[in-house]
């Protein structure tokens, strides 16, 4: 039986399988981006693939705290776009 990697959503605090989450990464230059592969270098934070979780993360500034950087609205819009596609 194969082990399923679990990660915690920074917004909802739920432990979910890694495939159900979206990874947001901050590289060493401080640039924040969406990481669809889940393998990009840098500090990562996971968020559930739902608009409710995204709204909660924005309200609580959960991603900003997890990545230790200020996140612009452009990044939140990019995350919303990925959630819509997926």
Give your account of this protein's structure.
With 86 residues, the protein is an alpha+beta fold. It has a single domain, classed as Hypothetical Cytosolic Protein, Chain: A, CATH 3.30.1230. Helices cover 34% and strands 26% of the residues. It has helices spanning 51-60, 62-67, 73-85; strands at 6-8, 15-17, 21-26, 32-35, 43-48. The strands form two sheets. The chain has a three-stranded antiparallel sheet with strand order 4-3-5. A hairpin with a 6-residue loop joins strand 1 (6-8) and strand 2 (15-17). The radius of gyration is 12 Å and the shape is globular. The mean pLDDT is 94.
Strand order of the largest sheet: 4-3-5
Largest sheet: 3 strands, antiparallel
Derived structural class: alpha+beta
Instruction: Report the end-to-end length measured between terminal Cα atoms.
Output: 27 Å
CATH topology, anyone? Hypothetical Cytosolic Protein, Chain: A
The arrangement of helices and strands along the chain is: EEEEEHHH
Overall pLDDT confidence: 94
- Beta-strand content estimate: 25-35%
How would you describe the shape? globular
Total number of beta strands: 5
Q: What is the C-level CATH assignment?
A: Alpha Beta
Give the domain tally: 1
Q: Please name the CATH architecture.
A: 2-Layer Sandwich
Please give a handful of descriptors for the protein shown.
single chain; 86 residues; alpha+beta; Hypothetical Cytosolic Protein, Chain: A; 3-stranded antiparallel beta sheet; two-stranded antiparallel ribbon; 3 helices; 5 strands
């Amino acid at each position: 039986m194969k082990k399923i990697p679990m990660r915690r959503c920074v917004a909802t605090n739920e432990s979910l399988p890694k495939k159900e989450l979206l990874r947001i990464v901050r590289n060493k230059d401080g640039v924040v981006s969406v990481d669809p592969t889940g393998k990009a270098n840098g500090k990562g934070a996971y968020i559930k693939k739902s608009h409710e979780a995204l709204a909660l993360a924005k309200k609580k500034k959960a991603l900003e705290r997890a990545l230790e950087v200020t996140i612009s609205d452009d990044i939140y819009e990019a995350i919303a776009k990925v959630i819509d596609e997926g």
